[in-house]
Design brief:
Largest sheet: none
Distance between the termini: 67 Å
Low-confidence stretches: none
Radius of gyration: 21 Å
Strand content: under 5%
Number of strands: 0
Number of helices: 1
Mean pLDDT: 87
Shape: rod-shaped
Structural class: mainly alpha
Amino acid sequence: RTSKGRAEQAERRRAEQAAHQRAEEASRAVREQQRTTSERHISRNWEPER
């Protein structure tokens, strides 16, 4: 009984970590896309920041 509960808890933790990792990768991909888009935009009509 105890080992079964512990296994379920470990499985739940693994699932949460996997979901968290997917969310991290998704947000990182979005940031990367935004960064490349902004760089492309800047290079297209470049003007100094200051």
